[in-house]
Structure formats: structure tokens, C-alpha cells
Amino acid sequence: MRIVRLASETDFDGWREAARALRLTEMSPAEVIWTVDDGAADLFAEAAPPAARGEIKVSPGFMDLARRVVLHRSAARFDLLYRLLWRLASEPRLLAQPADPDVARARDMERQVNRAAHKMKAFVRFREVQAEPREEAFVAWFEPAHRVTEATAPFFVRRFANMAFSILTPDVCAHWDRHALTFTPGADPADAPAEDELEAFWRTYYAATFNPARLRLSAMQKEMPKRYWRNLPEAALIPELTRHAQARTETMVAQSPSEPQRRIVRAARRASRDAAFDGAAPTTLQEVAAGVDACRRCPLWKDATQGVAGEGPSQARLMFVGEQPGDQEDLAGRPFVGPAGQVFDRALADAGVPRAEAYVTNAVKHFKHELRGKRRLHKTPETAEIEACRGWLEAERRLVRPRVIVALGATAVRAVMGKPLTIGGARGQVFQLEDQAQGVVTWHPSFLLRTPDPAAKARAYEQFVADLRFAWSLV
Ligand code: URA
Predict the structure, then answer these.
(1) Range of the domain at 65
(2) Please, which pLDDT band fits residue 189 given cuts at 50, 70 and 90?
(3) How far is the CA of 325 from the centre of ligand 1 (A)?
(4) Cα 7 to the center of its chain, rounded Å
(5) Do residue 460 and residue 426 come from a single domain?
(6) pLDDT, position 207
(7) Which residue out of 324, 376, 386 has the highest number of ligand 1 atoms within 8 Å of its CB and is therefore the one to mutate?
(8) Which ligand 1 atom is nearest residue 340's CA?
């Protein structure tokens, strides 16, 4: 029996080294116990790394898989990976058999780790703290489902290169001082901070060693005035956003999601079980956003990063309803920010319609997709999914009370009108809706992107712009 003690819960290099040596000495998986050095008494005094020289060949695909699986919280992960490595010697095509129980388990873990990383990217919310008089840093508390903090920290560094920040988690704390990324031991979840206690908590875990002299505040502020950093500082750093009007940026930042309140999340969960849910419960758009994210009324939430509610002024006279968030909307938590959003923005500008004055939302609030390799490909929602989500759209309509609602494409038409209509036939008409709003129908911007024939594409784009202008004239 061989006991291998790794340096940490995420010690991929240690696992790789030990696994290589074990394979070379032909130590079968049943003879190996994997454990992590937790600094406790030396229970396994006989444990020693096996000594072996030589190389073994494994595919980059397996190494990628192993790198992700190591981040899973399952205690069986090192063992599972070594068993896979062992079997690969006699079954080189093993990874191509998704039904094999070891492969299926590892792929499942990989998916869960990827989802935890996506969630971390989407849900970490920074709060400004005073590092020293007149100096600032940003701090966030987050509890990832798996040990993805070290692997995900470089994403935040890329995004917030100009911002000194700490992300505190129970596993490990990541700190970026605008020069170096460092890690310190995890924070105690037993005293997980309330929003307003974050600063004191951060002081316990890092501020003692924080060096504010290294902050370059003026450079940071040059990027974006500080008042825009309120809830979601990254909004200031999404280059695409900066191309749009100041007014739009302000609206979006002001509307950025904040952490759902427990009461609302509980109400949303109740709504999930209520077959007759009609969206009557939420009293504010913030409640809708929290409820959408907590919604379990159909299975689409399982593979999505987050629920994406609408955004825009709470009294907007014009509402646009799209189909569902796409890949980029799912990550950003905001509607129409990806490729379809760019077409939409261009057409709005050509039609003279200010997006900042409209409320923009979707019929379905979670991203429906299928995985093709690493890509998440859009899938059209089914009627049952549109119906499950209807209550949220009803709530947005009831709270915003727009005068005109524009349905973009077939899914939105079904959700807004309650029945299917052909877009070509319904364009140019005004539909009187039950809530006193007027309904207008037009193409979905993705349809324009997908139309291959340049002449047909140009014609559809012209029609789209004309329809947007028409809707605005009704307002
Ligand atoms: N397509 C939609 O229908 N909505 C979005 O938010 C993005 C793409």
C-alpha cells in the first residue's frame, strides 16, 4: 500500500508527479491512498513519494480534464484520476467512451467545476474599502461550489488590472495589488461577513500586509469616474460598453444586479412550485431580478450561469422583448450585450431610438443551449419553457407599464401575444394588448445575423430599422 500526501487540495502538479512515479513503478490504483497534507499529526508516517525515472505519454485532453477535476470537492477525485491514468495504458481510447462509469464521473466533475468557475466570474461583487486614508481597494466575499478560486483569479486580474482587490473565500483568498497576484489561506466561513462588515473582515485576512503605496489611483480613476463603480465595477471595463452613450452606461450601471435578498429568493422558490404563478408577487424590478435568478420553474437554470432579467428605466414607455439570453448575456447577466445585441444597438441608432430610454428584456430568462466541445450553442426554447417563464415577463410588464411592447422574433411573439404569428405577416400592424400596451412585431436581430444572402440581409435590416422607428413613433 502506498500513501501519497499532496501539498494542498488543488495540488495538481503534486498529483501529476506522484501519478507518473506510481505508474512507472506499476503501483495499481487499489494499492494507493491519496490524501492532502492538512498540517495535522503525522498519521501516515510511512508515506513517501515513490522514486522513479522515466516518462509516460498521456494526451493533452486527459491533462486538461485532470486539471479541472482536481478542483472538484469530491474526496475521490485524485483516486479517480489515477484510475483513469492507469486504465489509459491498456485502453488508449477510454476517454472517447462517455458511458464508461469512470469517464462519465470525471466528465460530470469537470462540468460542475466549469459551472462553478462561470458562477464565480458572474457573481463576485466587489465593495470599495478604505485601505489607508485616501487610498482604496476592492474586496469581495465568495463561496465557490468547487475550489476554483486560484484558477479563476487570473480572469479578475485581466478584467480589473487597474484595481487593487481581494477575493476572500473559505478555501483561499486571492489578492491583486496591481502588480502581483498572491494567495493567502482561506477565510473562516463561520464568520462570513454581512455586506457592511466586509471591510473589517478583509482587514483580518489581508489588510495587515496590504501595501497601499503601490496603488496607482489616478490611473485607475482615469479609466472611469468612481461613481460608476457602485455595484459592478467591471461594467466600466467592458470595452463594448464604453462605445455607447454616457446615458446608457449610467442606466446600466445603476441597474446592475445586487445580491438577492433572502425573502425574495424564498418567494421565487415558492413561485417555482406554484403552477398558477402569474408574476403578481414582485413589487420592484430588483425583486424580479432576484426571483428570475432563483427561479426553478423549468430545468433551464441547471446549465445556465444565472438568470438574466430585463434592464432599463423602471418607467420606460417602450419595452423590447427578445427570445432568451445568449452565451455572453448569460455570463454578463444582462440582455442583448453579445453579437445580436450589437446588431440591435446599430439598428436602434439608425432608427433614432435611444436604448437608454427603453426597457430591454427576454421571454425566457435562462440561457438554453447544448455543449458542442467547449462551445455553448443556442437552442430555441420550447413552449413549456416560455410558459414557465411567463410570470416574470408579466411582472416586468406590470411594473414598467410600457405604452409599446416590441416582440423581437417568434419566441417573443408567443410570449407577448400569447399565440404564434408569422413575423412577415404581422409586421407593420399594431396589436392591442390586454394590459393596454400596444404590441408591435419585428424580426429578431439574430435572424439578420443568420441570413446568408447579402441582399436579403440588407432588406431585412431595413425592415427591422423601419419597425423600430415605427414603434418609437407610437410612443
Ligand atoms: N438574443 C436574445 O433574444 N436576447 C438576448 O438577450 C441576446 C440574444
Answers:
(1) 2-119
(2) confident
(3) 4
(4) 30
(5) yes
(6) 62
(7) 324
(8) 8
Nearest C-alpha neighbor of 363 from the set 404, 319, 393: 393
pLDDT of res. 305: 87
Q: Please, which residues have CB within 8 angstroms of residue 358's CB and are 6 or more apart in sequence? A: 312, 313, 316, 318, 319, 320
**Tell me, what's the pLDDT at 287?**
84
Predicted TM-score (pTM) of the model is: 0.51
Which bin fits 226, alpha (ψ -120 to 50), beta or left (φ > 0)?
A: alpha
Domain count, the chain: 4
459 and 330 within one domain:
yes
Is residue 35 one of the residues assigned to a domain?
A: yes
Is it the case that residue 240 has pLDDT exceeding 80?
A: no
Is the pLDDT at 140 greater than 90? The verdict is no
First to last CA, the chain: 77
Same domain for 106 and 170? no
Q: What is the pLDDT of residues 155-168, one digit of tens each?
A: 888 777 777 888 99
| 347 and 470 together in one domain | yes
Nearest alpha-carbon partner for 67 in 120, 25, 11, 20: 11
Question: Which of 81, 96, 119 marks a domain boundary?
Answer: 119
Q: What is the pLDDT of residue 156?
A: 87
The binding-site residues of ligand 1, defined as CB within 6 angstroms of any ligand atom, are 322-326, 329, 335-336, 338, 340-341, 362, 446
Is 162 in the same domain as 208?
A: no
Q: Which of 172, 197, 167, 204 is nearest to 185 (CA)?
A: 172
Q: Say whether both 343 and 378 belong to one domain.
A: yes
Residue 84's H or E segment, with its range, is: helix 77-90
Under the banding of pLDDT at 50, 70 and 90, the label for residue 197 is: confident
Q: Does the pLDDT value for residue 42 go beyond 90?
A: no
